[in-house]
Records
---
Amino acid sequence: MFKRALALCFLLAACAPAPTPFSGPMVIGDSDPVRFSGRQPTTFPVRGMDAARFQTSVDWARAKAVGIEFAFLKATEGGDLLDIKFKDHWAGAARADIKRGAYHFYYFCTSPEVQAQFFIDTVPRTRGTLPPVLDMEWNPFSPTCQRRPDAATVRNEMQRWMDIVTAHYGQAPIIYTTPRFYEENRLVAFRNTEFWLRTTAKTPAEAFPGQKWTFWQYTSTGTLPNTPGAIDINAFNGSAAAWDAWLERRTLR
């Protein structure tokens, strides 16, 4: 009986379909590319992506094959909203050997202390992962929170969240933001903080004059092989050697 079962297993294995080969353009694409004035984001040697629940299926192996080196993954929003795809994306990026980090979307009707603890309870402190990210932008579509504090209050709440998260992960968070939010809340005040800037029509120098940046989200219409839908694509501000040095300095220990 054992020999017969073993033979059947080998037969089934032999008849199983082979893995689907890579198909389609093997590149990081863009369905609606922008020609920027100055240096084009596609010339930066290190590029990555970000993903949330809207990316229902990501072929992480193919993303790595075409040059995706890092991924920022939405983990939490406010004090109780867990992104339903976070665990899948977190595991998938790791299997593909893509450097991964998690981000928190800030909610203005819950204290920063509650939000920081929720993020800590959700995102594992894993050696080698990227620093946490605080996503700061106005959300005009929120059905439950229309609060827009003044700039000083915004910065105070941001700092309280970042202090708690820094103490837990041992790395200071990166701030992600948009031109409007940055200007209205005078985020230039965070002089010793790294920034991940969203600007899809202008360069960071044009949209955020004088602001240093580490990551640039330059398109929301990116494409990857075997991954449906539009993808946010990002560039790291530096050479491949600078990327390695940054990882040595800024990944979790």
Note: The CA atoms of residues 148 and 245 lie 38 Å apart.
---
Amino acid sequence: MAHGTEFIRRLEHHRARRLADRQPEPEALSERLLISWIHHDNMLEGRLYRPEEIAYALHHDDESLDRYLRPLLDNIRRYRDVIQFVCSRAHEGLEAVNLDNLKAIHRMQTTDPKDRGGLYRRTSPVHRDYFQRICSADKVPYHLRKLFEQIELEFEEACDPIAFAADVHHRLMHVYPFRRNPGTTARLFTNLLLLSRGYPPALLAAHLRDEYYDALRQPEPSKLVRLFHQAVSGLVEAPSGMSLLRRDAS
């Protein structure tokens, strides 16, 4: 994993190349990256979508699986749609990093009306998947407003944009705006932040689940910063650069 100034140099070189090559329309994700993103991001939540199941869903090959698994394929396609929404909005630049899109990300994957898609939580849940300290429900609007102010003022000037994104993610998980799907929503939004400026997404591998949860429990984001650096450096330093973000040749 890259560290320090050398990592930042390679990261900014990558960003400059990506922005120079940016097309008028958003570039399609490769199927390989899409499968990996869906698989690992959901495994962090304890939801197992096998790569072959994701491939069936992406190809609309529902007949290859038993009927009882068809709802799973719909869930996978819904998550694909949210990722595509993130990439499309990121193409608009930093202006897309706003509260409306945070709510939209949550609403798109939280379709049951009782789960209040896009609406803030009304209580501070006791039994939940994440165990970091969270603010009281009545403080959610205040903390979100302060977070978006920080993004607007500081992201362009951040010496280490990946560390800044990790800090945003750490703070967003402390705010915990939504009762359902808080983790996936926060990670998708954080990647909207990174992609909007030409940086790679921070896609945490499933085997880092325990480390990720532990990093969120820490009062400071330093452990989360290391995980984000690890995730991003794998894309920045790949021999083909960001080839995973390009449309498959097939």
Note: The longest helix spans residues 70-90.
---
Amino acid sequence: MEAFTGLTAIFFAAIFTNNILLTNYLGMCSFLGVSREVKTSIGLGAAVVFTMAFTSALNWLVYYYVLIPMHLGHFRFIVFIIVIAAFVQVVEMIIERVSEPLYNALGIFLPLITVNCAILGVCLFMLIRDYTFAESFIYGFGSGIGWMLAILAMAGIRQNMKRSKVPKGLEGPGITLIIAGIMALAFMGFSGMINI
């Protein structure tokens, strides 16, 4: 029961109190670039959730069962990026086969998941926090859901803002960054509840 409570706390903390995007500001480039339409945000968000969950688990296995026994822990950045890149290629091929319109809509942002600093950040945070395999997977899954929640909220707001009058100087990235800041403040309201 205690292990389940710990995993639940890690999961919800990754979504809300330690949201990888809105509290650590990792993964902002694709967040700002793709969050114009809800449909594409759902697709990219699902791809990030899937990639984040499984690459955090894969990188945990590689780190503790390959790099540490061979005394190559200092290569973790390079190896983690290679694992993420290989996994993203698989995800890209799956999306292209399953939904070609989504694949075309995501465009360059799909392969850019490879260099999404949020995914590498999750893999590094799991090491810093000394998570077990199960905790790493849950943390990656929760972080992915938190990232997806943030991009969906931003996409919904930006879609509704198309019918709004925004001052000329704030159109485009200006108002988007202001909205992201307000969203970050809203997520900071969860801090202190669960902080793992």
Note: Residues 14 and 46 are 16 Å apart (CA to CA).
---
Amino acid sequence: MFVISLSLTDLPLKNFRPIPFNIPHSVEAARLWNALGKHDGGDNRAVVRDDIKLMAQAAHESIPFILTEDASTLYKYCERLRDAGILHVMAIKLMDGFDSCALREDGQHDWVESGLVGN
């Protein structure tokens, strides 16, 4: 979907491992879509469907995190599915700034980085 508005060469592909979307991903996407039930009325159904595909692919591939600037759909629905215990993938909003501690599954901050301990 990236190449709709930008060139594929704009991606730092040497830093990523492309994964094709296949049948197991689509089965997981259907499970997540059905578990989600209705999406919020103001959200574009096609966008939500594509976000569900990303979550399903991450879940199937045991990818624990999705970094996103999309708080309005991807983050919201990922958290909704996580809160329901249906999904274990965590969406990390980049619009809040990036903190490497967010990549820890327990969300724990280091004492020094948090400012709780002086240097």
Note: Residues 75 and 108 are 20 Å apart (CA to CA).
